[in-house]
Amino acid sequence: MTVSRAALAAAGATAAAAGILIRREQTRRATERFAAAALETVLNAIDANDPETGAHVRRVAAYSLILGEAAELSEHECKSIERVALFHDIGKIHEALIDIVRDDQPLTPADRRAIAKHPIVGANVLEPLSGFYPDLADGVLSHHERWDGKGYPNGLKGRRIPLSARVVAVADTFDALTHGRRYRDAQPNDVARKVLLEGRGTQFDPEFVDLFLFPPIFDKVLNAEREIGAWKAPVQKRRSGSDDENVPDITFRWRPGRNGARGQPASDLTRQTAR
Length: 275
Ligand SMILES: [Fe+2]
Hints:
By secondary structure, the chain is mainly α. It folds into 2 domains: 9-49; 51-230 and 259-273, Orthogonal Bundle (Hypothetical protein af1432), CATH 1.10.3210.10. The protein has helices at 5-49, 51-70, 75-87, 95-102, 109-116, 118-126, 134-141, 163-178, 189-198, 206-213, 215-229, 266-273. Helix 2 (51-70) crosses helix 8 (163-178) and helix 3 (75-87) crosses helix 8 (163-178). Bound molecules: fe (ii) ion.
């Protein structure tokens, strides 16, 4: 049997196209693994600097995902909420604030002002990820906004507050109340439920409060709390070699004045998002 040149050329073209598709898929998977490794590194940095906050953000992420699923949000929205929940307090991880939070004295007005800056600090820290996750810095910036417009830093109202921030605000408040800090004792679940109910439609999006307190959903939250309570940060094993031989050596913005500025000053972020 003889094979025509045309048939050989067609077979060659098909093989080349298949090769391109395989390489594209390999690149996509390598990019995904690289992005996940970068985000896990940031989470490890939170754990290493303040394990209490590391445990808090994990619980808040678990409760937020339960809320997102209960509200039948899309997978994309749930992933966005998960990222905002995990990194919402990244602006608290610096020495001055950790000293304030760990001090067992009552908070002074100056302490409160310093703590109130953490959404802006966090959004600035996460700004380099905005090109990939445009809603991450905004969600973090807005997690202390209030439904009635009396929150900070921008006084956003109602649905102008990003969805992720409205979900995280409910989960964050419940967790902050039920897990004490040095300056504040942990409250029983009933007290935290009452605080959420009192803030329904003033501090919080009423739909998410209703969902959170709906008994089957609330039971899931309590189960997640128990599971994460037993969680311990694993001892990280150093891996030898690379997961992916094609990970590029990258140029990134670590030096002022080279490849762009290192991030916007806080005042720019506040102005941009002010309405
Ligand atoms: Fe916060």
